Structure formats: C-alpha cells, structure tokens
Amino acid sequence: MSDKVVVTGIGLLTANGLNTEDVWSATLSGRSGLATISRFDADQYPARIAGEVSGFVPEQHIPGRLIPQTDHMTRMALAAAEGAVRDAKVDLTNLPEFGAGVVTAATAGGFEFGQRELENLWSKGPEHVSPYQSFAWFYAVNTGQISIRHGLKGPAGVLVGDQAGGLDAVAQARRQVRKGLELMITGGADSALCPWGWVAQLASNRISRAAEPDRAYLPFDGRACGYVPGEGAAMLVLRPAAGRDVVPAEAYGEIAGHAATFDRRSAAGTSPALRKAIEIALADASLTPGEIDVVFADGHAVRGLDDAEAAAVADVFGARRVPVTVPKTMVGRLYSAGPVLDLALALLAIRDGVIPPTVNSTPDPDHVLDLVLGEPRAQQLSTALVLARGYGGFNSAMVVKSMEG
C-alpha cells in the first residue's frame, strides 16, 4: 500500500459560512464574520468582538435525541464531519469493521454546556444537573460522538494542544492510515463563546480589545492588539491514495509532511522551534523551501509572537520570497479548528489556483513578508505550508500538495 495519504472530503462550519463552498466563496470575497458578540451580553467585558457562527440550526444536521446531550461545539463537529463524509462520497458501511476511525483536537471542551449545568447546580440543586454533564464537557466527546454516529470502530483519540493540536490530530490520522486503515475522520471543533468561556480566554491577555471588528484582528501589523476568538469546526476525510474506491485524481491533495516542536518561551521574539518545525515538515515532504508556493501563517496578532513567526518564515524562505496569508482574519482564531480550516483552504487554493487574502492588516515594514492583502492573488499552486502555534509554546507545521505535485 502506498504511503501517500490524501484528503478526499472536507467539511467546514465558520462565522462566514455553514458549508465548505460557502466558506470558500466568502473567504475569496474577503467577507468577514467578525462582529460584536450576540450570544450573551458582553458589555461588561473588556473584549466584545468574536467570530460567531450564526444561522446554524443543529436539528437540520443531527438527530434530535443528540441535542440535549451535546454542547454547541459537538453539534458543529458532527455537522462538519457529516459534510466531510458526504463530500468524500464514501459508503462507510462498505469498509472493514475496524478499518476506519476518528481523531480530533479540542482546546476548550464543552464550556457552554458546563456553564449551564453549573448554573443549574447552584440555583436549583444537584438533582437538576444533566447526567450528560459527565461527558458533554469533555475534550474527547467530539471524537466519541462522531465515532458513534458513523459506526466507526477503529482507532479513536483526541489531542489537546491549543491551535497546534489541530494539525497534530491530522498528523495522527495520517499515521493511522499509513498503518493500514481505510479511512480516518480528523479535524477540530471549538466554541467557548459564553461568559464562563469568555473569561477563561481573557485570562491569556492576548484577546483583542478593539471596539471595531475591522480593527480588531491585525496580524503582522504595527497596530496589532491581539487576536479575535472564533468558533467553528473543520473536518477532513483521510484515505490511502491506493485504497479501495479511492480515485487519486479526485482527491483534494496529499498530506505530505508534518512536524511538531516546542518553544519554552514562545513570546520571546524568536522561535527557533517554529523554524525547526518548518524545516522538519519540509524534509518529511521531501521538498525544499523553494518548492513551497504559499504559507498559511498562524498570525497571532501579538507583537512578540508575530515577530517570531515572521522571523522563522524569513529564515527558512528568505525575505518576501514566498506569499503568506492569514485568512482566519475573517473568522477569528478557531483554536483547534483553525489550522484544519487553513489546511482545507490551502487545498482549495491549490484546486482553484488562487491564494485567499488577509483582510484589514497593513504590513509592518519590520516584517519582511509577502503578505497577500485585500484581494485574492491568482497563482498556480502545487504546494502549501500551514503553521499553527498553541499557548505555552506548541508549534506544528504541515505541508499539503497537489496530486500532480
């Protein structure tokens, strides 16, 4: 069996679209989903801008029996996974009994569900706490619910590494396929847009406190004042390129390389471990820096972190030698789902020969990056590098390439 692992299905749910093609269309048009929080009264908090998913009706995507036992993030994860499976055009019942599995990433867990049950506990008493609280808040719940929903009995797992965890989950799914599995569903889903979750996010002191959505999230910009949190889900179907009923020409592309590293002091203005992750991922993909067509940057919009990422990219690729983009400026940082969204957008960019833009930012002259701004850039693409970093020093880098690459 070939070691090549390909993406055959994509499912997306973000603040600017409720399915893959809508998200892609919105991204190319520069349509932002950032706005003042509407799910709760945020006036008393120092930050009030987020990337909320609006218009999502869970009952249209998952069985009604699952509604009382799931948090908002799990409902989005189930919908995105369903979209990815549908997009892959695969009949899961035709696979070997233990031939398919799930690995996802999560950062916050089911905060909204947990807050509601805590309110019930303190205002009404323990008998009013849902028995589903025992698992609905848990980081691994998305993996479990997706596995149950689709009858998948193969390997299952979850990774918790903040934003970097999304790429690490895809890398783990890739390993399982290389070991002989027929299919893995993988990706990330996160949502913590409730008062309890919002307070937890504010504790990092990295959240933008700008009052205007178009000034709130400005990576690699001298006016950068922190990132905007978002919510959403991004799921992929991974399969062996030489697997049964897999037509390589119909795949979006190959997961060609990956690496994960750790910086003890990720905000120190330099990130040797991020640079090393890029180098190892390129080596894993058997590519040189000159063969990478575009970089989907992490784009934290925190000055020290931006400086470190810009320096790492310039050290590997040279000053302004590779286009760089941060399309998550339109939806916010989706934590575990963020880099998987970037992977999906990178594959769609390769498919359509266009680099999606970074919106609102004005490049800081100290950052020697060729940042794609304002409008999409038409360009023939065969490879892309996606970068992700997690709170505390986690780094992850992943290379995708076209089937012809």
From TrEMBL:
Keywords: Acyltransferase, Transferase
Residue ranges of coiled coil: none
Any one GO molecular-function label of the UniProt entry: 3-oxoacyl-[acyl-carrier-protein] synthase activity
Keyword Iron-sulfur listed: no
Boundaries of every Ketosynthase family 3 (KS3) domain copy: 2-402
Top-level taxon of origin: Bacteria
Transferase keyword on record: yes
GO BP terms in the entry: fatty acid biosynthetic process
Sequence similarity: Belongs to the thiolase-like superfamily. Beta-ketoacyl-ACP synthases family.
The protein's name: Actinorhodin polyketide putative beta-ketoacyl synthase 2
